[in-house]
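Two proteins, back to back. First:
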Amino acid sequence: MSITCRPISSERHLDFIVSRGAASFLQTPAWARVKKDWRGESVGFFDGDNLTGVGLVMYRQLPKLKRYLAYLPEGPVLDWARSDVDAHLQALVAFAKERRAFAVRIGPAFAHRRWLPATIKAAIADDTVTRLSQVEPDETVLVGTRVRHQLLHLGWTTDETGHGFAAGQPMFNFQLPLRSADGTQLTEAELLKGMNQLFRRNIKKAAKEGVEVRLGTRAELADFHRIYLETAQRDGFTGRALAYFEEMWDALNAEDPDRMRLYLAEHDGDLVAATTMVRVGTHAWYSYGASTNTKREVRGSNAIQWQMIRDANAAGCEVYDLRGITEGVGADDPEIGLIQFKVGTGGQAVAYLGEWDYAVNRPLYAAFNLYLKRR
């Protein structure tokens, strides 16, 4: 039978994710309630009556026109190793046309290439290397290569110059595996052994200094937000409003009471670092982080990361995801400190396939891209 795509209930959408074991939190039904400036819809892919995949489609209307960008951030949720991926993509486009979409944007959320810590460190130390993609990956996943070829064959396009944080969801991410090759959950001793010496030393220093990490409540999001804005000013980015984090907390934890957590690291009663963690099944994400300008010597950021890693591991997660990195590894790259901090955990850099667009209406799609460039 041919693959079709049609709306499904939020309950059926979530049930599929639960049965699968994990999916990006950006593809849960709850995420539509977080992104209120988009209109969200749960869709399912069907082979006859058999549900073969799901997706959260987010619609953004063009100014003055009832035409929409249909966006599936880090989705759809499919078994990308299937032999009929092309039929699923064609069904999605056909469905989007019915919804008056001028373009469809997807972001297949699975690893295509991996770089292990030793490779990353060597790349950082090599003055002739400025981007991670200049270095041979330690692993290239065949399924990713095949899906990439299918997307190109079907007429999808991607901007491979937009590997930074401005181009939708990041193509490059940093992940710490929590299970060994045989599927056994790693022990805390094994996780510590995988970290670099500096990261381990900073964890010990935080403990010696008396840094304590605890879970926070919704009301304490305001404390997190206070030092988050301090971090934004220090690091030169525009911070989100407190209301955004409160909406995120309410929506995600209404779907699952342990979906989103707040962590607070304190030293002698002073808040020195704060983070949020999101978990969907066997995948946990470090989503937002903040630290104060004072008391940086007590290493609250290392202590809080270690606690989140331990909690994700105790929950049986396969992956602790430190989210996006840029692929720049040059000494003068503005984000080099971020990748150096994350590589200290012993994790690996992972490249997804990136985000791909299908132009349903080419003139409108071209105008949309021109508008984004001018903005």
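And the second protein:
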Amino acid sequence: MDEQDILGRIHALVEEEHRLRDSAAEHGDDQRARMAELERHLDQAWDLLRQRRAKQQYGADPDEAADRPESQVEGYLQ
């Protein structure tokens, strides 16, 4: 997966998140669960993009970047 693929994935996840947020004033359990899932997937996608860019910046192969587990990515401080 290259940078454009990752950015496309991020864009699609953000679009879905916006649709869910705008769809109803009150969200049901299913919508809240899906929003939480989208946030986790977004965190993973941004992490993968940052990994690729860091590897490229320091002369490593960006294709060696890999998705990290949600449990690891969710523990990062923003």
